[in-house]
């Protein structure tokens, strides 16, 4: 029974991250705040969104998101404000344009390059001719028979 309670507490713990005093009274604005914050990374916990994090900085970010929404900012404006303030790292899904485009394209490009180099290596290896094997001279054959004990 204790294990069940502990398991349920651990599973439900992200639900407790958003404190009751943070929740907006308007359900529409609160839904928008949840929508925005699910795409924002907790800068302390790294790969966790700010709604699931119990860190103090995540709380500050949740409050900041709600302040901006109450002030009338759109979802994109709130995200842009946070990116301007904390950098693009605050986004759980980084943008694919600009300099990031090079990073997104680098992995597949390296894979294609490696496959090309491997294919060329195998093709050249198959085309290579074996060096002609020369027969042993009579002196070499005698020496071989001595070594082999024949």
Description of the molecule:
It is a single chain. This protein is mainly α. The protein has 2 domains: 2-90, Cytochrome C biogenesis protein (Helicase, Ruva Protein, domain 3); 96-126. Helix content is 59%, strand content 0%. It has helices spanning 2-12, 27-37, 56-70, 75-86, 99-127, 138-148. The termini are far apart. The model has no long low-confidence stretch (mean pLDDT 83). One of its GO terms (molecular function) is metal ion binding. This is Cytochrome c-type biogenesis protein.
Which descriptors apply to this entry?
single chain, 150 residues, mainly alpha, Helicase, Ruva Protein, domain 3, 2 domains, 6 helices, 0% strand
Terminal-residue CA separation: 82 Å
Q: What is the fold named in CATH at topology level of the largest domain? A: Helicase, Ruva Protein, domain 3
- In DSSP terms (H or I, runs of 4 or more residues), the helix count works out at 6
Rg (CA only): 32 Å
Estimate the strand proportion. Answer: under 5%
Arithmetic mean pLDDT = 83
- CATH-defined superfamily of the largest domain: Cytochrome C biogenesis protein
CATH architecture of the largest domain: Orthogonal Bundle
Net shape: elongated
Which secondary-structure class do the elements indicate?
A: mainly alpha
User: How many β-strands, per DSSP?
Assistant: 0
């Amino acid at each position: 029974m204790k294990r069940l309670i502990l398991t349920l507490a651990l599973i439900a713990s992200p639900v407790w991250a958003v404190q009751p005093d943070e929740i907006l009274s308007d359900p529409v604005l609160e839904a928008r705040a949840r929508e925005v914050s699910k795409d924002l990374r907790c800068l302390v916990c790294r790969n966790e969104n700010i709604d699931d994090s119990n860190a103090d900085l995540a709380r500050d970010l949740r409050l900041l998101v709600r302040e901006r929404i109450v002030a009338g900012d759109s979802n994109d404006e709130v995200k842009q404000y946070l990116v301007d303030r904390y950098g693009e790292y605050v986004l759980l899904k980084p943008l694919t344009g600009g300099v990031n485009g090079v990073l997104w394209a680098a992995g597949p490009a390296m894979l294609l390059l490696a496959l090309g180099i491997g294919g060329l290596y195998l093709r050249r290896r198959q085309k290579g001719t074996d060096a002609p094997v020369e027969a042993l001279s009579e002196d070499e054959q005698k020496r071989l028979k001595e070594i082999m004990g024949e």
